[in-house]
Every structure is written in structure tokens, then in C-alpha cells.
């Protein structure tokens, strides 16, 4: 698990650790890690041109001390001080002693091999002010690699919100712990590759992170375990209520995602024309024209993709919500939930909602652009308001549960932004719910595998939703299975 903490936790941990160490120790640890990364990126330090953008806080101090280390190894280091009177005194002295120079001429950026962004870190507030913004823009237009210190300046470290001009880094060297703003968009896409430097904060951080990102090993551990006794019913039955005469394809894609999830059996409740189409593509589906409540027993439902928003669809949703098993509501189901059910999921079993930004905005009565700009806040808010686990789709998918846990998905590609991929995701997560994964795990594991399948399918070229289904087995294989290969569940004869 990659854990990220809100700035207030980082500051508290820093204070507790600093109280046990000689003054300046943490900054030296940070600067050493930063300089090591810069040296590696430069592929040799001697004679290279490094420009430091230095704000008046400790973020600037880190940049100055790292600059001094590079200057001692023969780099030509120029520092541009945003506020010369308030720049970190110790860092300035170290840089001067190492032969670094102060300059007021931003043209040095144009000739630099590497620019170190030490304008603001966890102390930054809002978008960059004009002087800082000009330097950030000049660095973006130059050939140099841009390395952000701790956080790209202009990105809110706790939330990933970017409220104006901000640095776009190739690499961010962050200290002590990840910050949510490095994992959640739009901040994440300003951070580039994120490298963590351990400065010893770990023992002083709370057990529960503000935001966590699953890694392959976590996914492998969370996937259901198969054994010799496994059969289709024990694996779980997932019910799908999707498709309509107008949108039959949505059911094909949702069922496809569900078949390649962890359930052993997929049941579809849909109109005849939808069933015919689904059976052509997926003959293994068990189909029923009956209402969901009469379609047979399931361990989880997926309801919504392409089902329409008329009264028949409303009644189908009502029946599914009245069941005592986990339910995933997507697409038209979300529209119906807002229109007829007060946007709430008051149920005894878990509910998962999978809106994109537009659907999330509608359920909250907010603007889509605000949801996209402040993804973490809105995902949490919808989870609190609905009592459901909410997965907000789009660039950096987020999952929040009503108890406050948040996961951010590290896989995925913008190539997934194509019609129908959301239907595949719904089927996949529903299948994981039917297999018994708790809502937060099902949603975050589903998003992880879906994002990975999207990447494997796209490989830098356009894809269609069915390509994502086709690559789900490869995505499963690539995370492995912590419970050992399935074929070993039966002894060889
Ligand atoms: N935590 C740790 O364990 C460790 C932390 N360490 C390091 O300390 C960093 C935190 O340092 P920090 O607290 O001094 O704040 P910092 O990020 O330098 O920003 C404050 C400055 O930014 C300015 N400023 C603000 N907003 C602005 C804007 N929009 N546009 C322009 N300027 C703006 C603000 O100006 P002012 O408002 O005062 O005029 C002030 O000058 C942390 O990120 C890490 O790098 C490591 O050394 C060791 C371990
Ligand atoms: N820019 C992006 N980066 C990464 N993933 C994206 C991006 N845009 C869309 N996606 C993903 O593509 C899928 C689209 O789902 P959705 O909007 O519901 O489409 P549809 O309703 O057509 O199935 C989601 O999994 C979403 O996270
Ligand atoms: K910075």
C-alpha cells in the first residue's frame, strides 16, 4: 500500500521526530535524497548547469542545501531567490560556500540542464503568485528537466487541487511520506514520477492514511482464494440489470466485465432483445426476462448501465435496492437514484456508486468542473451523503467509503476515456462483490485491474471497451495471486 497523509499529519510527525534529533537533521536528510536524485537524472554532475528556484520557506532551504551538494561535485549552480531577504539563511550560506551563485536573471533557466523547484512545498497556499508563476512558466518552456522539491509548487499537497499557475515537474522528490496531492489529479499530473525519500517520519504518522493507493501485492492479497472445493456457486453469483432496447450493448459490456471478475456465474435480468444480443457474445450467461426479484438468487447486483430512466427501469432499480445483498449502481441507475430515491442508498447491505464527474455533480447539485477540480472533496462528500462507497471515475479514479477511508487508483490510461469502458468496470466490481470482497476492496481492486487491462490493451494506441474485457485475464496474471497458483490447488495425479 502506498500511503499518503494530509499536511497536518506530516507536520505533527515532523515535530515529534525533530524533537529527538539535532536541529537541521531532517533538512539534511531531505537535501541528500534530493541531490542524489538530481545527480542520477543528470547522469553525471561535473559541468552540468543547475538552476534553483528558491522560495522563502524550508522548501527553498532543501533546494539550497541540495544545490550546495551538487556544486561541491562540480555542477554550475545558479539560485534565483524569490525573496532574497527571507531565503533560508543556512542554505544560502552552504550554497555560497560550495561556489554556487545567486542571480536575478531568469534567462539562466533557458540554458539549464536541470531546474529544481523549491518555491513552495507543504506550506504553499493557492496558485502561484505572479513572480513565482513566471519562473514556473519559463521552466516549462525550457529544455531542462524539472525536479520538484516535496510537492510541485502551486499544487495543494493535501488535496491535489491546483488553483492557478503551478509547476509541472518531470520528477517530484517527496520527503517522509507521499502526500495526497501527488496521487490525486490534477496535482498528480503535475508531479511526474514521484520518488519518496525516507527521512524517518514513518513511526510518527497515524495508522490510517488520508489516502492510500493499492499496489500489485495488495491486489494479489485481496483477490479471492480458490481451492479444490471451489465451484461456480461458491465463487458467487453476480446479477446484472443492464441494457434496454435502445442501449443493448451496455449489457454485453457489463456482462463481459462480470464474466472476467471473480464470480462463478453471471445472471442477466433484461428485455428479450438485450438477452439475444448478450447470448450471441456470451453464451455462458444465464438470462431471465423476469423482474430482478424473480430472476434467481445472487450474491451481488450490478444495476444501471444502459437500462434507461423510465418507470420500468425505476421499478427494477427499486427491487434491486430492496435486496439484502451488495448492490453496485452505475449510469442510468445513478440518474434514477437521484430522481426517485433522493440520491440515498439506505440499505442493510453495502452499496457502491460509480459516477463519472458529471453524474457525481448531478447527485451533489454541484458543477462538473468543480468536481473535476476538487475530486477528493466531492468523492468524500458523496460517500457521506449517500451512505454508499463511491468510486469517482476519470483521471485518477478515487474510492471513498462512508467511514472516511479513501483509495486512489494508480493504474489506468486516458485511452480508457471511450464509450462503454465504465460498463465493463461495473460488471467487474459487481463480480468481485459477489465473490465476497468488501465494498472498498471490490471497488479499488476492480479499478486497479480495469486500469491495468486498459493499459495493456492500449499500449499507446486507441482501444474500444471490448478490448479492456479481452485484457482482464492478462491484468489478473500480472498482479499474480498471493494464495499461490490456482493449478496447485489440486494435487497432480
Ligand atoms: N515536513 C517535514 O518533515 C520536512 C519538511 N521539509 C521541507 O519543508 C517544506 C515546508 O516548509 P515551510 O513550512 O517553510 O513551507 P514552504 O513549503 O516552504 O512554503 C512556504 C513559503 O511559500 C510561500 N508561499 C505560499 N504560498 C505561495 C504561493 N501561492 N505563491 C508563492 N509563494 C507562496 C510563503 O510565502 P509567504 O506567505 O510567507 O509570503 C512561504 O515563503 C516541505 O515541503 C519540505 O520541502 C524538509 O526540509 C524536512 C522535513
Ligand atoms: N482521462 C482519463 N484517464 C484515465 N481513465 C479515464 C479517463 N477518462 C475516462 N477514464 C476511465 O474510463 C472509464 C469511463 O467510464 P464512463 O465515463 O462511465 O464511460 P461509459 O459510461 O461510456 O462506460 C472509467 O473507468 C474512467 O475512469
Ligand atoms: K516545490
TrEMBL record:
<dbReference type="InterPro" id="IPR000631">
    <property type="entry name" value="CARKD"/>
</dbReference>
<dbReference type="InterPro" id="IPR029056">
    <property type="entry name" value="Ribokinase-like"/>
</dbReference>
<feature type="binding site">
    <location>
        <position position="306"/>
    </location>
    <ligand>
        <name>(6S)-NADPHX</name>
    </ligand>
</feature>
<keyword id="KW-0067">ATP-binding</keyword>
<dbReference type="GO" id="GO:0052855">
    <property type="term" value="F:ADP-dependent NAD(P)H-hydrate dehydratase activity"/>
</dbReference>
<keyword id="KW-0418">Kinase</keyword>
<keyword id="KW-0547">Nucleotide-binding</keyword>
<dbReference type="InterPro" id="IPR036652">
    <property type="entry name" value="YjeF_N_dom_sf"/>
</dbReference>
<keyword id="KW-0521">NADP</keyword>
<feature type="binding site">
    <location>
        <position position="422"/>
    </location>
    <ligand>
        <name>AMP</name>
    </ligand>
</feature>
<feature type="binding site">
    <location>
        <position position="250"/>
    </location>
    <ligand>
        <name>(6S)-NADPHX</name>
    </ligand>
</feature>
<feature type="binding site">
    <location>
        <begin position="58"/>
        <end position="62"/>
    </location>
    <ligand>
        <name>(6S)-NADPHX</name>
    </ligand>
</feature>
<dbReference type="InterPro" id="IPR017953">
    <property type="entry name" value="Carbohydrate_kinase_pred_CS"/>
</dbReference>
<dbReference type="GO" id="GO:0052856">
    <property type="term" value="F:NAD(P)HX epimerase activity"/>
</dbReference>
<comment type="function">
    <text>Catalyzes the epimerization of the S- and R-forms of NAD(P)HX, a damaged form of NAD(P)H that is a result of enzymatic or heat-dependent hydration. This is a prerequisite for the S-specific NAD(P)H-hydrate dehydratase to allow the repair of both epimers of NAD(P)HX.</text>
</comment>
<feature type="binding site">
    <location>
        <position position="153"/>
    </location>
    <ligand>
        <name>K(+)</name>
    </ligand>
</feature>
<keyword id="KW-0413">Isomerase</keyword>
<dbReference type="GO" id="GO:0016301">
    <property type="term" value="F:kinase activity"/>
</dbReference>
<feature type="domain" description="YjeF C-terminal">
    <location>
        <begin position="215"/>
        <end position="479"/>
    </location>
</feature>
<comment type="subunit">
    <text>Homotetramer.</text>
</comment>
<feature type="binding site">
    <location>
        <begin position="393"/>
        <end position="397"/>
    </location>
    <ligand>
        <name>AMP</name>
    </ligand>
</feature>
<feature type="binding site">
    <location>
        <position position="423"/>
    </location>
    <ligand>
        <name>(6S)-NADPHX</name>
    </ligand>
</feature>
<comment type="function">
    <text>Catalyzes the dehydration of the S-form of NAD(P)HX at the expense of ADP, which is converted to AMP. Together with NAD(P)HX epimerase, which catalyzes the epimerization of the S- and R-forms, the enzyme allows the repair of both epimers of NAD(P)HX, a damaged form of NAD(P)H that is a result of enzymatic or heat-dependent hydration.</text>
</comment>
<feature type="domain" description="YjeF N-terminal">
    <location>
        <begin position="10"/>
        <end position="207"/>
    </location>
</feature>
<dbReference type="GO" id="GO:0005524">
    <property type="term" value="F:ATP binding"/>
</dbReference>
<dbReference type="GO" id="GO:0110051">
    <property type="term" value="P:metabolite repair"/>
</dbReference>
<dbReference type="GO" id="GO:0046496">
    <property type="term" value="P:nicotinamide nucleotide metabolic process"/>
</dbReference>
<dbReference type="GO" id="GO:0046872">
    <property type="term" value="F:metal ion binding"/>
</dbReference>
<keyword id="KW-0511">Multifunctional enzyme</keyword>
<protein>
    <recommendedName>
        <fullName>Bifunctional NAD(P)H-hydrate repair enzyme</fullName>
        <ecNumber>4.2.1.136</ecNumber>
        <ecNumber>5.1.99.6</ecNumber>
    </recommendedName>
</protein>
<feature type="binding site">
    <location>
        <position position="117"/>
    </location>
    <ligand>
        <name>K(+)</name>
    </ligand>
</feature>
<dbReference type="Pfam" id="PF01256">
    <property type="entry name" value="Carb_kinase"/>
</dbReference>
<keyword id="KW-0808">Transferase</keyword>
<keyword id="KW-0479">Metal-binding</keyword>
<dbReference type="InterPro" id="IPR004443">
    <property type="entry name" value="YjeF_N_dom"/>
</dbReference>
<keyword id="KW-0456">Lyase</keyword>
<comment type="similarity">
    <text>In the N-terminal section; belongs to the NnrE/AIBP family.</text>
</comment>
<keyword id="KW-0630">Potassium</keyword>
<feature type="binding site">
    <location>
        <position position="59"/>
    </location>
    <ligand>
        <name>K(+)</name>
    </ligand>
</feature>
<comment type="similarity">
    <text>In the C-terminal section; belongs to the NnrD/CARKD family.</text>
</comment>
<feature type="binding site">
    <location>
        <position position="150"/>
    </location>
    <ligand>
        <name>(6S)-NADPHX</name>
    </ligand>
</feature>
<feature type="binding site">
    <location>
        <position position="356"/>
    </location>
    <ligand>
        <name>(6S)-NADPHX</name>
    </ligand>
</feature>
